[in-house]
Design a protein that fits this description.
alpha/beta, three-stranded antiparallel sheet
Length: 355
């Protein structure tokens, strides 16, 4: 789940790295309004402003990865990779968190992520946070595809807007992660700034008790970015990672939240950029490059198509079998077995939606 993917929400008001306040929302171009094929095999690049060079296709990206012509892959992800796991995004009418937040009797939905309101009344936030308890949701095939990139030694870094922790849960090590909007895995006292163990934080939250510091009794807050707070220091890794990258993958994000969105322009102009997303977004819509590739439509289906072209179907099946074997109880072994058998037919398999 990306924390604030709506323009009205606080993440659009992050302070930039030099102290400049950024508030930007770029228009989205949907597949129906742009001459790009949205079929599983019909990806296309958007051209390069009149360049006559050969168009890059999804097959070309797969070939670069298979031949290890690209070995420093940087990935940017947003809420769109977590919705198949059952986590709502913010925007979807009626079911997105933007709509759900109305039940908390807030002056406006984004108040739940503002420090001033949090200090006034932290209970609505913790009621909301309870829904995101680690373990309530499982990684899906997109997360395991990213894990596979790491296992094959191709992942330089994964930059995520999500606070749900599913990248960690899929087995991607913390050293390969930049959680740009923070994480629910840890917490800090808002008064004395002492770290508060994550297990103690969740023990309080799950019994509807506001977690408080045992030293000063201050309210503790999970280490996610609220309005007026700086991004985590690890975000500065982008200054080294993006110039070094030889391939950029962008999955399930609106590219509207700054400064995260601008990272898509931080790779060298010669570096291929692959967008697997519902809509054409960000600079790939406004200022496309000659080696851009766009796969529009369902994110999981787009990842499935890339996995097929890479010849990694057996690899991801083995990985999912290893990981689901750790968490599925024996009583559900028959159901688990059916899911894994269904992976042979990727188009129909429920494991490609959620585990």
């Amino acid at each position: 789940m990306a924390l604030f993917p709506c323009s009205a929400l606080p993440a659009l008001r992050f302070w930039g790295l030099r102290g400049a306040r950024v508030r930007t929302r770029w228009p989205r171009i949907t597949g129906g309004g742009w001459p790009i094929s949205c079929s599983a095999g019909g990806s296309s690049d958007t051209g390069g402003g009149g360049h006559s060079e050969k168009k890059f296709l999804l097959q070309d990206i797969a070939e670069l990865i298979k031949t290890r012509a690209c070995q420093r892959v940087v990935v940017m992800v947003g809420a769109g990779i977590s919705t198949p796991s059952g986590i709502p995004d913010f925007r979807s009418p009626g079911v997105g968190y933007y709509s759900i937040l109305q039940q908390y009797k807030l002056p406006y939905p984004e108040a739940i992520f503002e420090l001033s309101f949090f200090f006034h009344d932290p209970k609505p936030f913790f009621t909301f946070a309870k829904k995101l308890y680690p373990g309530n949701y499982r990684p899906n095939a997109t997360h395991y595809f990213l894990r596979l990139l790491h296992e094959k030694g191709l992942l330089l870094r994964l930059y995520t807007q999500n606070i749900d922790g599913l990248e960690r849960a899929s087995g991607i090590p913390a050293s390969k992660l930049v959680e740009a909007h923070g994480s629910l895995a840890s917490a800090t006292c808002t008064i004395c700034r002492r770290p508060y163990p994550g297990e103690d934080f969740w023990a309080d939250v799950m019994v509807d008790r506001v977690p408080r510091c045992p030293v000063c009794s201050g309210v503790t807050k999970p280490d996610i970015v609220f309005f007026g707070e700086p991004l985590p220091e690890r975000f500065l890794l982008h200054l080294a990672d993006f110039p070094m990258a030889d391939l950029l993958l962008i999955l399930g994000t609106s590219l509207e939240v700054e400064p995260f969105a601008s990272l898509s322009d931080a790779v060298r102009s010669s570096v291929p950029r692959l967008l697997i997303n519902r809509d054409l977004v960000g600079s790939l819509a406004r200022n496309p490059r000659g080696r851009d590739v766009v796969q529009l439509g369902d994110v999981v289906h787009g990842v499935k198509r890339l996995v097929e072209l890479l010849g990694w179907t057996d690899d991801i099946q083995d990985l999912i079998q290893r990981e689901t074997g750790k968490v599925w109880p024996a009583a559900q072994s028959q159901e688990r077995s059916l899911l894994l058998q269904g992976l042979v037919d990727l188009e129909q398999s429920p494991v490609w939606l959620t585990l």
